[in-house]
């Protein structure tokens, strides 16, 4: 009989491998950048109590020792506005990711578990949403609801939930006929209890990974809507709207550079962390590390 011990290496070996995955440089860099931005967002009122809206100097001053990121077209300190932008972009992006994940996971679980006409209706709705480019559909929704940040979040939730629904549905289709799920139903467990107790642990990891990866996309699309004037409205210090304001002064490079770098760093950090979580939480896609 052949030796199959590598395939059943046991929890100790698996735990050792997963712990080593947390030491990936990109994962640590991503976590450090996100934590840094969270700290910046928390201490922003202490650094700039005026919310980044006060006029403090001459307009369009380049970066200097007094104004690290320079000043904008109204004489507001750009460093103050960038750090206050973290208080807008980060929590709103988190809010829409959580809402999209909850809605998409619930609908995907219902579609995959029950199947039939319920599955058909939910998946056709998802296909209809995904048939349009997300930014175009989000623009249409915001235009109908009115341009402000809350409506922008709702618009992105509307275009984002199908991604979670399709992933969860595909996973449930592979496990709903497993013996432990069928045994639970035969013992009299309700569909809701079966989904929560038996199915949820198998889909929670991939959903967390997808949410981490989608967080960067959420920051990017919210910034894009604000760039187009459909998200945060002046005088709010939002990164996308700050980049938009900078495009009117191409020779004043600092106006768009620093908020653009903030967006870039957050998106990269979310992707780095999401890739690491995927390796940790999804054994099928994890790589071997020595």
Question: Mind explaining what this structure looks like?
Answer:
The protein has 290 residues and is mainly alpha-helical. The protein has one domain: MetI-like fold (Orthogonal Bundle). It contains ten helices and no strands. The chain has helices spanning 11-21, 25-47, 78-114, 116-130, 134-145, 149-175, 179-186, 191-227, 239-246, 254-281. α2 crosses α3 and α4 packs across α6 (149-175). Residues 1-20 and 286-290 have low confidence and may be disordered.
Total tally of structural domains: 1
- How many DSSP-defined strands? 0
- Estimated radius of gyration: 23 Å
CATH C-level class is: Mainly Alpha
- The number of helical runs is 10
- What would CATH call the architecture? Orthogonal Bundle
Structural class: mainly alpha
Biggest sheet features:
none
Report the span from N to C terminus.
28 Å
CATH topology: MetI-like fold
Helical residue percent?
over 70%
Q: Give the integer mean of the pLDDT values.
A: 82
Would you list the SSEs in sequence order as H and E?
A: HHHHHHHHHH
> Would you identify the CATH H-level superfamily?
MetI-like
Poorly predicted runs: 1-20, 286-290
Query: What overall geometry do the principal axes of the alpha carbons give?
Result: elongated
Give the assembly state of these chains: single chain
Roughly what fraction of the amino acids lie in strands? under 5%
